[in-house]
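Internal tracking record. Fields below are filled automatically when a chain is submitted to the structure queue. Please do not edit lines marked as system-generated. If the sequence contains nonstandard residues, flag them in the REMARKS field before resubmitting.
Queue: standard
Priority: normal
Entity type: single polypeptide chain
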Amino acid sequence: MKHFLKDFIFIIIGALFYALAVNMLIIPNNFADGGLTGMSILLHYIFGWSTGIVNFILAAIILTIGYTVLPKRNIILTAITATLISFFLFITENNIEPLADPLVSAIFAGFFSGIGAGLIFRTGSSMGGTSVIARMFHHNLGWDLTRTNFVLDAAVVIAGLFFIGTLNTMYTIILLFIGKKATDLVMEGLDPRKAVSVISTHSTEITDVVIKNLDTSATVFKGYGGYMKQDADMSYIIISKYQLMKLKRLIYSVDEKAFVVIHDVRDVTGGSFAWEKKRGRK
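SYSTEM-GENERATED OUTPUT FOLLOWS
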């Protein structure tokens, strides 16, 4: 119950952010958007219909058709999300004057809508539109989920080209790009982790030095070098990106010939990171 309440609060805040971005920055500047809200915005431009009411009706239709292909918890959260977005879109509808600079409007529209979407996605919910349709196509026809979702969103944006013009469509693309980055920021946090693979004949010593100086754990895998035809163990270490340079110095202080590969990590749970959270460490 506590976890659901936290998710519900995130959804409320995310839906409000998203709705305000639409009604205060996207619609006044005649931009478009992707997904279900993008469809509602286009219908608003064409017929003058309320985005909140149209968004609610479209979401209800899509969820009614596609409820069988979504997990029960996801359906509940998505229904709540779609309802709240529609509600906030409806109550914040107003004739707001556009900003003098459309580029600034596009940037901040993307930022605030991306923050809102990120808060919603963190709960495991969705916006209730094209993602549900994509899941239906995936379930019934075997279509790739990610590509189908991208094509559906792109189709909505391209359709907007005929109603908002080429220039505003370009601003919309900027908006969507900024929104994607803002969503990633919320999803991944301000302290992304790095995975570091170190291949060396001194892997045990490197691991000991890392544990001692960086207060983090490391794993050693037994390996064999295909080129050199000799044993070469690999150390696998997860650290904050701010510790990366120090880690590299520690590695090369032990073995100047170590082979180091650095990967981006989207999420880390458990292990020493769970212990860090318990102690309140960053």
